[in-house]
Amino acid sequence: MEISKIGFYTGLCWSASFILAMLSLTQPAWGFAGNFLGVLSIWVAGVQLRAAQASMPKEETPWGVRQRWHKSLQVQLLAALVCTFVQYIYFRYVDNGRMLTVLTEVYTNPEYTELMKQAMPEYKPQDVLNLLSQITLRDLAINFMLMNSFLAIVLSIPTAFVARFRR
How do residues 20-62 score in pLDDT, each as one tens digit? Predict the structure, then answer.
């Protein structure tokens, strides 16, 4: 299987994990399923990479550690792009301010405010809310793209480990 297809399927796992995480904002039971799919994406990518290596002709040299990590990194970065696209679509057309509402409730919660004032005496919930209201969809998409890319780098290591292949 091609690296791009593996990355796409892994990105679908990431995207489903994200959607379940967004559902868990109002229904916490979905959070476990979202976390499970996120971890499952490592296994999905690793097994598909192992299958791609197994389908190589016998005369080709098996992938070394560096090649496995490089291919895993490519897969995870493609998955990050797919997930970032889904996140953009979600916030553009589906969310309708739900995440901002939840964050507003958290930041104005009296217990949270008291805890933050103990840690940072200059903390003012209104300043945080003003900052949240100024975030644009473009800012959010860039932030998610950077976070997804960093996560892809980290996840490529266990993915390469799962992709080990012995003839």
Answer: 998 888 888 898 999 999 899 999 899 998 888 888 777 676 7
d(CA 35, CA 107): 24
Residue 90 · residue 14 · CB < 8 Å:
no
DSSP letter string, 47-115: HHHHHHHHTS-TTSPPP-HHHHHHHHHHHHHHHHHHHHHHHHHIIIII-TTHHHHHHHHHHH-HHHHHH
pLDDT in tens, 97-149: 888 888 888 888 888 888 888 888 887 778 888 888 888 888 988 999 999 99
Q: Which amino acid is at 54?
A: A
Instruction: Write down how long the chain is.
Output: 167
| 154, containing H or E segment | helix 137-162
Closest-CA residue to 87 (of 99, 75, 76): 99
Using a 10 angstrom Cβ sphere, with 0-12 exposed, 13-18 middle and 19 or more buried, the burial of residue 18 is: buried
